[in-house]
Amino acid sequence: IYMRENIQAHQGQVTFLRVSASCSESSDSLASRDHLISCGTDCTVRIWRLIHSERNQVSILQVALVKLLRAPRDLAMAGNTLCMAMADNNVIMCRVQADRKSNTNSFDAVKNSHEFLMHSKDEGHSAVINGLSCCSTLGLFATSSEDQSVKIWNTDNQLVREMCFDESLCGVCFANSRGDILVGFQSHISLVTILNYLPLSYLKILSRKSIENDPFEDHVQFNDLLKSWYDPQRVPRMPLKVDKRRPLELTEIKKPKKRKKVQVG
């Protein structure tokens, strides 16, 4: 699959490419299908529709444009709600409406049709945001920050839940369409299930949906006697000067020392 012609999406470097997850129950023209989202250093976010023009050929059509005062650090989109993590630690959302009259990819072709959604300052993060993810099934966004907290937001930019961790918190993402989340902290990844953080109202919504369970994965048993695929002692060493290099024989490659078996008893 390829595009017949290149399209200049931005008047600057492209910094992000994301895919918006559609909401099957939505009647909104933008939220009812998947879209491609691009963001650039020109401080604009553009939403594109993917069109299969011919066999093995695709094209993109711009359907919405959001102009910003500064470029976001990260972004995600669920339905017709765009969520952006800004450099000033704010979480800004924008409800976007598609311009049905648009049929071109020019920079000023799409009419600005969007509404910015804000939240109170005391609900926001107080340090750099280092994680952003969305769950289109529930219409929720998750953000993590160096202020040691993970916050869950709805599509109205309202705080739904806040969870506190420690200074090692480094990221968050939704693990599945049900809403379980993965949190990176203390040099490992922890799973936070929906029963441990979602309000009852959202659990009732999930009870009316048909969502497949995650496939069960067997644990890999650790074998401390298993030889590592990488052994630094077996890596050939060659001089930096080309004229002094020569092919090394296998006998010249140091073999790792065998472990001595210790009999117990």
> How much strand content do the residues show?
35-45%
Helical percent range?
under 10%
Spans with pLDDT under 50 lasting ≥5 residues?
none
CA distance, first residue to last residue:
66 Å
Instruction: Return the average pLDDT rounded to an integer.
Output: 83
Which structural class fits the helix and strand makeup? mainly beta
The CATH class, by name, is Mainly Beta
The CATH topology corresponds to Methylamine Dehydrogenase, Chain H
Number of strands: 16
Task: Using the 3D structure, state the CATH architecture.
Answer: 7 Propeller
**Tally of domains:** 1
The topology string of helices and strands comes to EEEEEEEEEEEEEEEEH
Pfam families: WD40 (PF00400)
WD repeats: 122-157
Keywords: WD repeat
Characterization of this structure:
With 265 residues, this protein is mainly beta. It has one helix at 200-207, and strands at 2-3, 14-20, 35-40, 44-54, 57-67, 74-78, 81-85, 91-96, 114-117, 129-135, 140-145, 149-154, 159-164, 171-174, 181-185, 188-192. The chain has one domain (2-99, 112-208): YVTN repeat-like/Quinoprotein amine dehydrogenase (Methylamine Dehydrogenase, Chain H, 7 Propeller). A 5-stranded mixed β-sheet has the order 1-5-4-3-2, with no helix packed on it. β14 and β15 form a beta hairpin. The chain is globular. WD repeats lie at residues 122-157. Pfam families: WD40. Keywords: WD repeat.
Summarize it:
InterPro entries: WD40/YVTN_repeat-like_dom_sf, WD40_repeat_dom_sf, WD40_rpt. 3% of the residues lie in helices and 36% in strands.
